[in-house]
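Subgroup meeting minutes
Present: P.N., E.W., G.H.
Scribe: E.W.

1. P.N. recapped why we're keeping a running log of single-chain structure predictions: easier to compare across weeks, and new members can see raw inputs and outputs side by side.
2. G.H. added today's entry (355 aa).
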Amino acid sequence: MKCFILLLLGIALHSSSAATHSLRYVYTATSGIPDFPEFVTVGLVNGEPISYYDSIIRRETPRQDWMAKTEGSDYWESQTQVSIGSEQTFKANIDVAKQRFNQTGGVHVNQKMYGCEWDDETGVTEGFDQDGYDGEDFLAFDLKTLTWIAPTPQAVITKLKWDSNTAQNEYRKNYLTQTCIEWLKKYLDYGKSTLMRTVPPSVSLLQKTPSSPVTCHATGFYPSGVMVSWQKDGQDHHEDVEHGETLQNDDGTFQKSSHLTVTPEEWKNNKYQCVVQVTGLQEDFIKVLTESEIKTNWNDPNIVLIIGVVVALLLVVVAVVVGVVIWKKKSKKGFVPASTSDTDSDNSGRAAQMT
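Output recorded in log:
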């Protein structure tokens, strides 16, 4: 069972295709991390955050304009009370887990992710409810048997306790398979101008040097479901192809790259092309691999001129620095350079203090 531990900073959970929509909630309790909220909740629809709560602000707040406009104060107050109650439970869970794992101090994380998915083409739905501790799976709810899966011995006690609460497990199944789906469809309707939109990609062929792999880069598309593939002489080509992950841009759109390792002689004598298919868009976006289509710094004479100027300036700077060092050594006997170390923890991620 794949570990689902998530980092709240830069969290991104996306549906596998445009037809599949998801509603997820992530609860995270931490201990031993200074200047960080001990409890955080995030609600996400199709990977987009819609709500947020932490133990510092102690208020459930909207993270999309359409959520703020469609849900009133009663909704946010009730969600706040739910999160406040969950905060106490999850903090207590860390203490229990620490006892079971014979832990004392240190940094520890208790996390839950639950929610549902709905395929708007087939109507198929799925639900999930998983708990993790310190980056490892701890418990997972099985919708078919209405029991809990415990992948670690320390979780067996909780599994047996939760398995015995059949009424609660029936309620959990009803929420994951029905109530959650109803809310998901409601949120999708609220934010349909954003969540249900389709944006075509911008496709480019990039290459660092004439001997580097050729990269087919698609960016600016929405939703996240995309396939970036290569063809050779009209046939699918998989040899010497490396696919990158789908990444989110700052504006909420996505990007993805596929790298083809091929010699110039090979692609000049055969027809290679990159094909980009975005779920929800009928059109295929195709770039034929030709010398005129490849964007590379090495083909730009202005870049070569700039590099020459930069190198010349660096040589001047180096000459000046060397001259100053030699002058100081001659004029100040016993000169000792300041001690530096890349293993100095105080220098990690912070500027030197002027004290």
